[in-house]
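Entry for the shared binder. Reason: the reviewer on the internal report wants the predicted structure included alongside the sequence.
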Amino acid sequence: MWRGPLCLEADVAMRIALIAMSGIRVCDGELLRLGLTLPGFVERSKTIASLPSLGLLTLAGMTPSRHEVSYIEVPDIAGLGQLPSGFDLVAISSYSAQIDEAYALARRYRDAGVKTVVGGPHVTALPGEAAQYCDAVVVGEGESFWRAVLEDAERGRLQPLYSAARDTFEMSDAPVPAFELLDISKYNRLTVQTSRGCPHHCEFCASSVVLTGRYKQKPIAKVLNEIDRVLSIWKYPFIEFADDNTFVDHGYWRDLLPELRGKGLRWFAETDLSVADDARLLELMRETGCAQVLVGLESPVEAGLPGLELRNDWKLARYPRYKEAIRTIQAHGITVNGCFV
């Protein structure tokens, strides 16, 4: 039931909706002109990895307990019908594929008198565009600004833009995501993040390198705590490590993986091919339940690799060993999902 406008007193308990635009769209203009909407690809995404928004769950985990938080997924705004109501503040996260729907949803809430905040990689790249549709835009890592957003919203002083000149957020300060908000029956994987950034800096990358310009890791104890939290709601989970390049620091993982023995996990990670050079790491991966790694091979031919990375040609130098490295990983019982641009 609608409760009217937000009270302007400090330290007010708010009802907050964290809304993930969770669907997949084909947005390439040329493909759409040809009538190719790739329904098989969209359906495959539902089967292979139905994932909640780790970013929004993380914000929920750092929200003061006096507030009431709801996590909502909107795969298709056309099927939404009536707006979920009764909220004082709505925060929306979206990738580029659904950004127009995210803007439309933000506008509907704003027209209804609800304060709206929008964030994510697309908004970080185009904050001026986003500002036309919402009350506040968050640029970069949400953890850096979420407490300030809440405090300003409580006081009725929400700022139009939350941004910082440089990245100041440390992974040692990362809150535990509020996995308890989920109906676990809706998902076939849950995500745990151990790092952000990547040293390769490929020119096409639109992952966490958009949000942070440096590589940083979460302390192992925090990662294990998050996995235990997942285990508290899902006895035999499938975990996706939500890193741009999980195995940058092999020593870190040689310390972390032995702690996963006996937990009944199956897991997936994204990596470069350097993992094939570390026999001990591959053994630990197999022993602790690694089912598959995604490797950014980027091009099936050598001519497609020069200049792909902005700092060096690391992948080009390894191209002659692509097949050998893939076979090495597979020999440890781990499948390889090759990705190409």
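Summary line for the report: Residues 1-9 have pLDDT under 50 and may be disordered.
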